[in-house]
From TrEMBL:
Residues where substrate binds: I15, Q16, G17, R30, T93
Source organism per UniProt: Celerinatantimonas diazotrophica
Keyword Repressor appears in the UniProt entry: no
Binding site for S-adenosyl-L-methionine: W40, C41, D42, G95, S137, P138, K139
Name of the protein in its database record: 7-carboxy-7-deazaguanine synthase
Domain of life: Bacteria
Stated role: Catalyzes the complex heterocyclic radical-mediated conversion of 6-carboxy-5,6,7,8-tetrahydropterin (CPH4) to 7-carboxy-7-deazaguanine (CDG), a step common to the biosynthetic pathways of all 7-deazapurine-containing compounds.
Catalysed reaction, written as an equation: 6-carboxy-5,6,7,8-tetrahydropterin + H(+) = 7-carboxy-7-carbaguanine + NH4(+)
Pathway linked to the protein: Purine metabolism; 7-cyano-7-deazaguanine biosynthesis
Entry keyword annotation includes Magnesium: yes
Length: 222
């Protein structure tokens, strides 16, 4: 049995709304803790791991409603929660899930027939089972002053880049030299802004990349 303990904000089932697996039924595991400091972050309640916010495992097995909270869970305990849902696609997100060694959890899930997808900022080492699909959403020059790691870009199966303006695309270009050529590239307009969306659409057409539109925000699910 693995002795890695994860701090988890919530576990819930929904439709993956972003990137390559958009539209796929999925169980989301949202880890607590992040120090990257993106100003437009829509999960700021995951940033801090405060002792007062510890809850039971049963309590985090439902959407948090953006509450700052967490429960300790081992890989075995998370597997039991996941088995109560129908989806076979597991999205490990945050917060910054690469605060944790994800190998024990993802190896166990793959062995049980699940497909794991990681969503990470690329600013921490990625410790994950080799069968997992890694989505790096590189967070460049954020307030936490963490660099995007070349090793994270090299592990990416997909690069899903948040875009507000042209300089964001220029910054992405500088990172793509580290990526495998087969990695999928998707641009995601920040906060559904019209100008950003238009820029992403034109760039995707010009460069044969994909558009990621945060489908869940348009259809009104978590
Ligand atoms: S890396 Fe993710 S969770 Fe952390 S601040 Fe940025 S958007 Fe928020």
């Amino acid at each position: 049995m693995s002795d890695v303990i994860y701090r988890v904000n919530e576990v819930f089932e929904t439709i993956q709304g972003e990137g390559f697996y958009s539209g796929t039924p999925a169980v989301f595991i949202r880890m607590q803790g992040c120090d990257v400091g993106c100003p437009w972050c829509d999960t700021k309640h995951t940033w801090t791991v405060a002792l007062d916010d510890e809850r039971s495992l049963a309590e985090i097995n439902q959407p948090s409603g953006d509450r700052q909270r967490w429960a300790q869970a081992s890989a075995d305990e998370l597997l039991v929660l996941i088995q109560s849902y129908q989806a076979k696609h597991i999205v490990i997100t945050g917060g910054e899930p690469c605060w944790y060694d994800l190998k024990p959890l993802t190896a166990k899930l793959h062995d049980q027939g699940y497909m794991c997808q990681l969503e990470t900022s690329g600013t921490y080492d990625i410790q994950i089972d080799e069968r997992s699909f890694v989505t790096v959403s590189p967070k460049i020059n954020m307030r936490g002053k963490r660099d995007v790691l070349a090793s994270a870009m090299q592990r990416a199966n997909e690069v899903k880049h948040p875009v507000g303006r042209q300089s964001d695309i220029d910054a992405l270009d500088a990172l793509l030299v580290h990526c495998p050529t087969e990695a999928q590239i998707a641009l995601q307009p920040i906060s559904q802004q019209k100008r950003a969306t238009d820029l992403c659409i034109q760039t995707c057409i010009d460069r044969n990349w994909r558009l990621s539109v945060q489908l869940h925000k348009y259809i009104g699910v978590l």
